[in-house]
Amino acid sequence: MRALNNCPAPAKLNLFLHVTGRRPDGYHLLQTVFQLIDRGDVLHFTLREDDAIRRVTDVPGVPEQDDLIVRAARLLQAEVVRRTGRAPAGVDIAIDKILPMGGGLGGGSSDAATTLMALNALWQSGLSRQELMDIGLPLGADIPFFIFGRTAFAEGVGEALREVDAPDCWYVVIEPGVSVPTAKIFTSEHLTRNTPLVIMSDFSSHYANRSDLRGFGRNDLQQVATRLFPPVAEAVEWLGAYGDARMTGSGACVFCAFDGEDEADAVLAKVPAAWTGWKAKALAHHPLDAVPGFGK
Ligand SMILES: C[C@](O)(CO)[C@H](O)COP(=O)(O)OP(=O)(O)OC[C@H]1O[C@@H](n2ccc(N)nc2=O)[C@H](O)[C@@H]1O
Ligand SMILES: Nc1ncnc2c1ncn2[C@@H]1O[C@H](COP(=O)(O)OP(=O)(O)OP(=O)(O)O)[C@@H](O)[C@H]1O
């Protein structure tokens, strides 16, 4: 096998996100539910004759050497060298980037996760899912989730994952047109860091017969982000007229759940022209999950 084309890197939504503490290294302890959705970037991998790792698509604002895709590929390549004493073939990586950066949709993390899974298959390196998750975590707190590949209740900094059921619903997502730097939100003096712990079954029982999150949890980062980025506040207020609108991750995107596609379409038709809006369906599994060799 010389190439793997059309590898999906789906986005995630944080259905709720509680900040429950802070570690001595400054990272925050979270409780969240990660939901995969059927919208994302698409990556293409072609092996090279030499051992170079190259991103062959220009991504505005992200130099090749800083790209999480390239950094993830290098880490896996180094791990293969450590295990076998031989460098695997280099790779050209192309990306169809559609997810906004600093959108809270986990785009960069998902790209990196797909890279680790695809190269594990192309190089036949045989690493387990857990080993790939361990390689990814230092690059981004959301990477282990994308490799885990199921709707997940997450704790720690997002790396302690348990599969959980969530409704098979539709989401309307609004991109308010700003990019939110995650670190700026977490370092704010206004961030509350002491939300009481919930237990996973609280979430499951709340969600048993409904798609609406109303009454369960919140996104603790939202208060800080809406204060710093007024367009995020405007999007929450606008979408909030149709249901429980919440921010995902550290923002900027805002989402709301709907039982049916028709309801989502009706709201989407009204999104003000100044914003980008789209719908997506909840995914219970990562689309690469069903492909053999991507992690075992
Ligand atoms: C907030 C979430 O979107 C929830 O899904 C993610 O945990 C953020 O993940 P991410 O964008 O991949 O962020 P990272 O690159 O890991 O971290 C960026 C910065 O955010 C802060 N950060 C991030 C995650 C976390 N649990 N605590 C933190 O304090 C740290 O200052 C870190 O330097
Ligand atoms: N392949 C990549 N795609 C997007 N961003 C990347 C990539 N590689 C590095 N980055 C950097 O990571 C930053 C965060 O991008 P990303 O799209 O993951 O944010 P996000 O959706 O807010 O993520 P999260 O929900 O994890 O906070 C970008 O601003 C960019 O500088």
Automatic annotation (TrEMBL):
SUPFAM superfamilies: GHMP Kinase, C-terminal domain (SSF55060), Ribosomal protein S5 domain 2-like (SSF54211)
Domain GHMP kinase C-terminal: from-to ranges: 213-275
Name listed for the protein in its UniProt record: 4-diphosphocytidyl-2-C-methyl-D-erythritol kinase
GO molecular function, one term: 4-(cytidine 5'-diphospho)-2-C-methyl-D-erythritol kinase activity
Nucleotide-binding in keyword set: yes
Described function: Catalyzes the phosphorylation of the position 2 hydroxy group of 4-diphosphocytidyl-2C-methyl-D-erythritol.
Coiled coil residues, start to end: none
Pathway the protein contributes to: Isoprenoid biosynthesis; isopentenyl diphosphate biosynthesis via DXP pathway; isopentenyl diphosphate from 1-deoxy-D-xylulose 5-phosphate: step 3/6
InterPro entries for the chain: GHMP_kinase_C_dom (IPR013750), GHMP_kinase_C_sf (IPR036554), GHMP_kinase_N_dom (IPR006204), IspE (IPR004424), Ribosomal_Su5_D2-typ_SF (IPR020568), Ribsml_uS5_D2-typ_fold_subgr (IPR014721)
Active-site residues, record numbering mapped to chain: K12, D142
Pfam families named among the record's database cross-references: GHMP_kinases_C, GHMP_kinases_N
Residues annotated as domain GHMP kinase N-terminal: 68-149
Species for this entry: Pseudoduganella plicata
Family: Belongs to the GHMP kinase family. IspE subfamily.
Residues annotated to bind ATP: P100, M101, G102, G103, G104, L105, G106, G107, G108, S109, S110
